[in-house]
Amino acid sequence: MLDRVLGYARDHRDEYLRDLLEYLAIPSVSAQPDRARDVKMAAMWLSAHLRDLGLRAEVMATAGHPVVYAEWSGHDHHRPTVLIYGHYDVQPAEPFELWHDEPFKPTVRDGYIYARGADDNKGQHLAHVKAVASYLRAEGTLPVNVKFLVEGEEEIGSPNLGEFIAAHRELFACNCVMISDSALFSLTQPVLTYGLRGLAGFEVQVRCLERDVHSGHYGGNVQNPAFALAQILASLKDEQGRITVPGFYDDVRTLGADERAALARIPYGEAEVMRETGALRVFGEPGFTVNERRGARPTLEINGLWSGYTGLGSKTIIPATAHAKITCRLVPHQDPDKVIRLVQDAMRAAAPPGVEITFSDSRGTPASLVSLDAPEIQAAARAAQAAYGNPPFYELEGGSIPVVHDFQTLLGKPIVLLGFGLPGDNIHAPNERFAVACYEKGIEASIRFMAEL
Ligand SMILES: [Zn+2]
Fold first, then answer.
1. Spatial distance between the Cα atoms of 251 and 162, rounded to a whole number of angstroms
2. Which residue among 303, 333, 363 closes a domain?
3. Is the four-CA dihedral 332, 336, 342, 344 of positive or negative sign?
4. Residue 280 falls within a domain, yes or no?
5. Ligand 1 mean position to 374 CA, how many Å?
6. How far is the CA of 427 from the centre of ligand 1 (A)?
7. Fewer Cβ in 10 A, N or C end of the chain?
8. pLDDT tens, 171-206?
9. 261 CA → ligand 1 middle, Å
10. Distance between CA atoms of residues 421 and 437, nearest Å
């Protein structure tokens, strides 16, 4: 059965490509109110496409852009059910003048499809749709039950998705969630992401005076809030980059020896960080490698810092207030509320005399971690190895995907994060692209995953 389905996909590659180009031509930019009709059209296009394949598909309303939901189930209730997540909305394409082709007139050139949304995420989730199409058209059946949840608000932060999933929890009952919204290491090297960092952040204001005052009249007799804030912030880390907030690392998960060995296999290190960022040197917590620091260690960063006069020339004042925006990237088992409390307590304790310190805009999402022992992850690893020719790298991703946390808490099932794109695909940038080979390999990986599952 597997060979016939893979053969069907190969024989219909031109048709599958044409369908993707048609889907990409719909400018479903979720952030732009004047594109709302196009966003709806993309949802209608996808649901009609899924219905044509024989799935029960519908466009479901949310408080924002709709969700496309579809399902196919056979008569055998012992089959596992996979819920495939994707998003049909895209980032704005501006500035248009930096595109070599028109972002919503998809162009195939040198083996790449150029269009907004080609990689992120229409090409990636349509690969799963085409895997399902290949099974149903070639064999009339699937080895698993399949559900699709394709949302239209990912690029604006999925503001309604958590509530939507919570309200339709039975509809999304499944054995695992498959998400393809990340990248391969190369066309022959797949990556399975098994952890994502969380985030905790807030804004701080330090106030010492009622208003900005003359630095000659008052200098020497009052506290300067910019200095006070600098002292407070400097106390949060030592000179080697270790965070000195009491209790900050208490709940951090320790890496096993196997895990450290697996992370060490990924050919990404100090040279890559320096090349990609232009950093003068690599700097981070001692005792950990670049890959370990990126995904398995928490951070504390100042994202913005301001006080006093920053315009042209000079202005001899002592400013009344100083401000900073602070975020921490969190790793598994850290509680965002606890981290925020610990950092704020340390900042209060470090405040010099004559300082009023206030915090605002506190928010957080915990990290996510998938067990590598889950049979669904192992099925994905075997499928990826068969499709791309090498066993996957197991990676801890430094960034956050809030929807993964929603899925974990609301559904409690393993999340398979297997990306089909390439690192150079210019997502969120001009000239976004997706290799035709990535699309075809993605279809193959998805077909194999369903067979393995
Ligand atoms: Zn995106």
1. 26
2. 363
3. positive
4. no
5. 27
6. 7
7. N
8. 999 999 999 999 999 999 999 999 999 999 999 999
9. 31
10. 10
